[in-house]
Design brief:
The protein is α+β, with helices and mostly antiparallel strands. It contains two helices and seven strands, in the order αβββββαββ. The chain starts with about 25 loop residues before the first helix and ends with a strand.
Length: about 160
């Protein structure tokens, strides 16, 4: 009898999974992927996705532009930045981005689901990322909402809506 290939679709060892319901976690990851693609199309460089430590997690960490596009040069002890003439005012500022997905707005908009407790956790997570990466520059905590069907979502970027 020939050996059975576990990866073969007709294998009795590893049958093809049914196209059942998608888990909320999988939908959330897909929404994060859509949000990261949206940010990349709008000039952001993704630095980290799903960064975590023992206590917290950040969905997306991004920077506007790349190191060569209007980069900010920092002086010692975090003196005010010297900006390249004509550079975008947020060039090289780090954005910590929370992604919220809602299939329907029947019970409220996605951004309304960020509680005060979640905001406090995001502020602590941003501080932890800065410490872990020895980053002392400017940053902001933003939200990207993904609403509707994931095949054709409505994506909204809300910059700097959470302050520490």
């Amino acid at each position: 009898m020939p050996p059975t290939d576990p990866a073969a679709p007709n294998s009795s060892i590893n049958p093809v999974p049914s196209a059942g319901p998608v888990s909320p976690t999988a939908r959330g990851r897909q929404a994060e992927t859509l949000a990261a693609a949206y940010l990349a199309r709008h000039g952001y460089t993704i630095l980290d996705r799903n960064w975590r430590n023992r206590w917290c997690e950040l969905d997306i960490v991004a920077r506007r532009g790349s190191a060569g596009q209007g980069a900010t040069t920092w002086a010692p002890n975090n003196y005010p930045a010297l900006r390249t003439p004509g550079a975008h005012p947020e060039a090289n500022e780090v954005h910590f981005i929370e992604v919220k997905y809602r299939r329907t707005t029947a019970y409220g908009y996605a951004a309304e689901y960020i509680s005060r407790d979640k905001q406090a956790r995001l502020i602590r997570a941003a501080a932890a990322w800065c410490q872990a990466h020895h980053y002392t520059g400017p940053y902001q905590i933003s939200v990207v909402t993904v609403e509707g069907d994931l095949a054709a979502p409505v994506i909204t970027y809300l910059p700097g809506v959470i302050s520490g």
